[in-house]
Structure formats: structure tokens, C-alpha cells
Amino acid sequence: MALLEVEDLRVHFKTDDGVVKAVDGISYSVDAGQTLGIVGESGSGKSVSSMTVMGLTRAKNATITGSIRFDGKELLTASEDELRAVRGGPISMIFQDPLSSLHPMYKIGKQLVEAVRTHQDVSKARALDRAVEMLGLVGIPEPRRRADSYPHEFSGGMRQRVMIAMALCNDPKLLIADEPTTALDVTVQAQILDLLEKLKRELDTAIVLITHDLGVVAEVTDDIAVMYAGRIVEKAHRDDIFAAPEHPYTWGLLRSIPRLDSPRDEELVPIPGRPPSLINPPSGCSFHPRCPYVREAHTRVDPLLEAVPGAAGHEVACLLPPATRRALWAELSTGADPEAAKAVATAAGAGSGTGSVRREEEAS
Amino acid sequence: MAHGDPLIEVRDLVKHFPITKGLIRAKQVGAVQAVDGVSFDIREGETLGLVGESGCGKSTTARLLTRLLDPTSGTIEFRGKDIASLSRKELKPFRRDMQMIFQDPYSSLNPRKTVGSIISEPFIIHEPSVGEKDRKCRVQELMEQVGLNPEHYNRLPHEFSGGQRQRIGVARAIALKPKLIVADEPVSALDVSIQAQILNLLRDLQRELGLTIVFIAHDLSVVRHMCDRIAVMYLGRVVELAGADELYNHPRHPYTGALLSAVPVPDPRLAKAKVRQVLTGDVPSPTNPPSACRFHTRCPKVVMGKCDVDDPALDPKEGGNLAACHFPLSDREVATQVPTAAA
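^ Those are the sequences you sent over. The predicted structure of the assembly is below.
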């Protein structure tokens, strides 16, 4: 049994403009000592889904269905008291903005002591020892003295390390890190990523890492889920996502960022258009208005997350036939633009054309 | 790309922000040395990148170039004329040749003005003789040029997405056909799929209009993609200056090496292959920077007795890079630290 199992999770918010389907049926699981990367743009539902794990999206206008089992226990139906015992204890979270997640008027040490004493029955002195130990672990110099400082006396990177120290002070089994390095410089980012790897290795912590940065997930994750418009559109082992991506959106992401390891004059291929509205998501495949390979049926049929034939653990929600997808990526990965790739793939995939027609008929 | 003569020559540029104490009779007790003796040229038609961690002075340098800030000392020669000490009035004719694109497309546009009037503003200030009808015509051409629908002339900024707003900012910047555009983190507030749209737009416009661009970003992959030459800044100084290929293939300053080593590469095979060079600690305070070479407190190659007493000059090193370092990186060191560097 996996440590965290999320099944068919849906989080909908009722607003004046309509129902926002922030998360619309996602499933994933994370084992101890594993890191899952959730990649997506703003509005893809990656943050809402993980905040729901912590019970942070329970609002009057929210409808949450599905199941979230942690260590075999259902969290969606847990009472507020039960959740409080879980938050900051066995599951803890690091947020993107370290300045707004620390109380500006309490000293760092005091805030850490509070976190420890919420979950452990220890004296203040013992709790402070623990706090100082954790500050040392995350690389704060002179931790005993710095525990006596206020958040504003710390730099951005140090504050983020304090947040990590706080998240770790009760030995969590699961750490949810929501864009933990986005606000930081690359050099500090490298320090934080090293720290996350050390945790996984030494404490067997499971980590859910939410980010929009493909470079970050390539460095520290085991599995990757790509989210788009509230759904997971592709899920696979890290190496497969980068070597043999299956979804046109994943291709778009990989090809629209400049990389240090590609030729300098290589043209970027942006994804046309912009992320869809979650109130009136497009019919059929939600990526179809931006997809260069869209076919008529894709505007009607909703793709399911299905296993990729011949690739263990690789799942994708795309209506294109697998052979066509493979031909397209083979073209794209050599640097062809979407139009050229489409032409080649159509010519080469003549045999698979019938397959796709049958598939579309089946679906409709 | 044709790299002509220097359009701008910056020499010993300094900007110190005073720190004062006391309310009534404020006394200066120190200074934030944001930019401290920076010299470089910007050649006509090129894209010069400025990179460095937050607080290194790259944005201050940008604002000094466009004279949005007054320098403490030093010269900025624009086509041979020093503009560093010109008065507001004397500056006006130069302003139209230097435009800026800002980081945050949400706060850099007046929320109460229509897109049309935001983009017309430069014409109203610098070409008051142009009639209203003519102006509207030119604004709509500009909107077309940056990929906006000209029919949206009367819309307000909040009706546009982040990427479209940044296009409005670009249209405003190119309205007067400036010589120089200073783009301060133009894509860092945008989603990844939108970033490429704006980067491609800037490149296309540069080709069409022969623009010279100063491009500031903290994302080293984006800078490599966009720039011909790159200046790496650390604590108010330029520590390395080189062509993009030279800088990324064989960085010479240990700080550049560490920066490149820290960039996460979206390729698991390369990520596994490299030994990440992690700098310890944070950037020291610019109010009290370290003596001599400012990087010596964090440098993996530091030699005490040399680096902390003798300030290195920005000199040519092996491969043609200019670097301010006594002990520059060798090719072998680069190869182990930076797997993306070509051998």
C-alpha cells in the first residue's frame, strides 16, 4: 500500500461567475522515500490538489469528492481535529512564499517551538533544542543565536530554509513542497534541492514537489505527473517523461523553454493561445484549442488517462493513436516545427490511420 | 547579426543609496553600494545580457542606463554624449531613444487607462504635432505588430492576460522607434508556455527594427537564448563579460561557473552526470561588502592573503572572456562542474 493514495479527486468551487472546476478527477499515489513531481502552469490545479490533501480547501463554496488515503486513513472525511493532528505532524507542507508564511512579529525560535509542541508533549527547552537542531540541519549558520532573530532579519533563502526546518521538526512521513524554490536565486535553489534529496535519502520522507520548472523536476523526482486544466494529462517515470513524452502539451512544455544543453540559436516553439478557463473548460480534450494535432473528434470526446502500450507505468490522456504520437515525437525531438512533424507523421502513419478512426468511432 | 560601434559606453558607473538615521536632522550613516564601478559597452544592434542573483545591482544598472535613477558618479556616453549628468530637460530628446520594458505586466500599466491611450502616451509626449486620428492609426499598427488585436484599442488592461499585457508593454516601448530597449526581467512573471511567445516577439522586433537590447534576467537559459554578449554581476560589480558562447562553454570566473552549475537541466541523464557546485551561504550585504574581490567569502577557489587584499581587474582570460579573478577556472574544472558546457 502506498503512503498517499489520491483517487478521483475533484475540487469544485462555486463562484458568482459559475463553478470553477479547479481539480477535476485526478488520481496518484506516492510511496515512502519517493518523490512525485507535479508539473503544470498557473491554474492547472496543482496547488489546489495538494492543499486539499492537507484539508486546506474546505470552504463553504467548495465541493470536494473522491478519496485521499494517507497511511490507510481517509482524510477527506476526517474531522477538523483529526486533520490538525496530521498537519505539521505526519504530513507537512512548504509554501512558495516564505515571507508570508512566517509570522513577522515572533522570533524564529518561538515559531519552531510552537510547531514542535503542537505535536509532541515536550518542555519548551527540549522543543527549542529540537528547533536549533533542525535549523542546523537545513544549513542555518549559528542556529542557537539565529533562533533568537525575527523573520525580517533573514534573507529569502534562509527564510525558506526556516520553513523547511519547521516542516521537518516533527519527522513527517510526507512533505508537500509547493514551488519551494520559485522565489529563490539559482544558487540558493541548488542548496534547497540538495537538502530535499538528503531528506529523501536519510529520512525516507515521501515528497510531493509542485513546480512549473521542468529543470527542477528532472533533478530531484522519481515520477512526474503533468497537469492541465484540473486533470493529469500524463504520468510516468521521470526518465520517460523526458525521453519519450506522449502528450502534445508535454511536448509543448519541453520545446518552449530555452535549455542550456541545446544549440543556442534553436528557435523556441511556444504553445499557442493560453490556459483555458476552468469555469467553461473546452469540450472534449481540454487541450484541443491549443493542440496543433487536433482532429475533429477531439472536440467531442473526453480522453481518459490510459496506459501507453509497451511502456510500464506510463499513462497519457490523449486521443491521438499511439503510433502517430510516437512518429510525431520522433520528428519533434529532432527540432522540427509542429507543422512539419504533422506532415511527416501523417505520411508515415498511414497504416495507423484506420486505427484512429475506429478509436474515435468507439469513443463517440 | 551586425555588431557595430558602441551605442553606449559606460565607465566607472556608481550608485550608492544613502542610509540615514534620525528623523529631523537625518545623518548619513552608510550607503547601499548597489552599483560600484561598472564599465562596459553596448554595441549597436546587439543584445547584451545582465545576469546575477537578486541584489547584485542588475536592475539598478538598467535604471541608471535609462536615467530613471541619477548616478552617484561615472559616465554613460550615448553616441559620444555623456548623459549621466544631464538635467531632466536636457534629457528629453534622449528619452525617446531609450525605452524600458518592465518585469510585472500587472503593475506597469495604468489600470484606469485604455490600451490605446497607454500606447499613445509616447506620441503625446514626444510628437505632440501628430493629430489624434493619425495617432490612433499608428497605435493600431503597433498593436498589430506585437500580436494584439487592434480592435481591442478601447479595452482596459485587466481585460488582458499576463502575456498580452506584456505585449502592450512592448508596443509602448517600441512606439517611438527607439535605439535602445532595456528589458528588465520581461518574462519572469509569465507562465512557461507564454514566455516563449514574448521571447520570440522580442527577437523578431529586434531583427525588424534593428534594436539594441539590454536584457536582464535571472534565468540563465533564457539569457543564453537571447543574448550576444553577457555581463555577470556580483554585489555591484561586473565579474565576467564575454560572448554568449564563450561564457557558457568556458566560464572563467568561479562565480559564473557556480551559477551555471546550479541551473537545473531538464534532462535526467545530464542531471545525474554532473557534480553540482553548490555555493554556501548567501550574498553578503551590499552595505558592507567584502574587501578586495567581493566573491572571496563564498569562492571555492579562494586563496587567502591574495583574494581578500588584492582587488582583481576585469582582464582578458584564456578563450577571450573578460573576468575579474586571480585564479580563473580551467577547462578541466569547467567540464566537471558544468555538464552543459561544450568541451
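The radius of gyration of chain A is 22 Å. The longest strand of chain A covers residues 18-30.

Shout if you want it in another format.
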